[in-house]
Amino acid sequence: DVKVTQSSRYLVKRTGEKVFLECVQDMDHENMFWYRQDPGLGLRLIYFSYDVKMKEKGDIPEGYSVSREKKERFSLILESASTNQTSMYLCASSLSGVDNEQFFGPGTRLTVL
Amino acid sequence: RKEVEQDPGPFNVPEGATVAFNCTYSNSASQSFFWYRQDCRKEPKLLMSVYSSGNEDGRFTAQLNRASQYISLLIRDSKLSDSATYLCVVNGDTGRRALTFGSGTRLQVQP
Predict the structure, then answer these.
(1) Angle (nearest 5°) at CA A37 between B71 and A89
(2) How confident is the model at residue B95 (pLDDT cuts 50, 70, 90)?
(3) Three-state SS for B82?
(4) For strand A103-104 and strand B60-65, is the pairing parallel, antiparallel, or unpaired?
(5) What is the largest CA-CA distance in chain B?
(6) b or e along B53-63 (b: 16 or more beta carbons within 10 Å of the residue's beta carbon)?
(7) Pairing between strand A10-13 and A108-112?
(8) Which contacts of B55-60 are long-range, i.e. CB under 8 A and separated by 24 or more positions?
(9) C-alpha pair distances (Å), A18 with each of A26, B83, B104
(10) Cα(B35)–Cα(A101) distance, rounded to whole angstroms?
(11) How far apart are CA B10 and CA B35, in angstroms?
């Protein structure tokens, strides 16, 4: 059974804190993605990676950075959390190429106070 | 204009009804189209791909209209378990290796 796991289901942080969200997949997928999902706005792509140490900006990369040191792990970093980064964060992975099915993790609900 | 637009709904239908959703996309060069399903408080999962000639999977039929730049999803004989949000997904930018998700259409099937 394919699996994408995220380090936390719920997270509460304070403004200005550095926040790490971790995502691990066990399917040997080349592609990994970070999205945020907000009511009325749907899923918006923050960053994605198509190989180890490779990354590309998505639609809303400002305020975020990512790290992919190993194929199975993709980390999202909020350098200095702000209240407008309160959201549901979803990680996904897929085989290489753009048309392959994306498998999502359960999501992390982040609240920044 | 958003790359992918959907009516947010909700669509409230009785069990057994047929319901259809449309989704429009802005990039005429888009090549790949999908429908994902997201249950309440769950992650999205692929429902079906959408092929140029249209395709069917059981009670679900997907169609693509390139001339008018929309895709549709038809659900026949709705079940209570079909209640979910349906996300339209497009490869909107051929220079980018990522898909663009619509904000979803919510379906509520009532007994």
Answers:
(1) 130
(2) low
(3) helix
(4) unpaired
(5) 46
(6) eeeeeeebbbb
(7) parallel
(8) B60/B35
(9) 27, 38, 31
(10) 11
(11) 17
Place of tokens 């997949």: A25
Q: Which two tokens stand for residue B95?
A: 């220079």
Rg of chain B over CA atoms, in angstroms? 13
Local structure of residue A78 (DSSP, 8 states): E
Confidence (pLDDT) at B68: 94
Report residue B90 as tokens: 């497009």
The pLDDT tens digits of the residues spanning B22-40 come to 999 998 888 889 999 999 9
Nearest CA to B47 among B11, B3, B82, B12? Answer: B82
Could you report the average pLDDT of every consecutive run of 10 residues in chain A (113 residues)?
89 97 96 94 93 93 97 97 97 88 96 98
Which residue's entry shows tokens 């039929």? B61
Interface test mutation site (partner A, options B52, B85, B99, max chain A beta carbons within 10 A): B99
- The residue among B7, B97, B106 with the most chain A CBs within 10 A of its CB, best to mutate, is B97
Please check whether residue B26 touches A, CB under 8 A.
no
| CB-CB neighbours of A113 under 10 Å | 10
What type of residue is A69? E
Contact A4, A103 (CB under 8 A): yes
**What confidence score (pLDDT) does residue A41 get?**
87
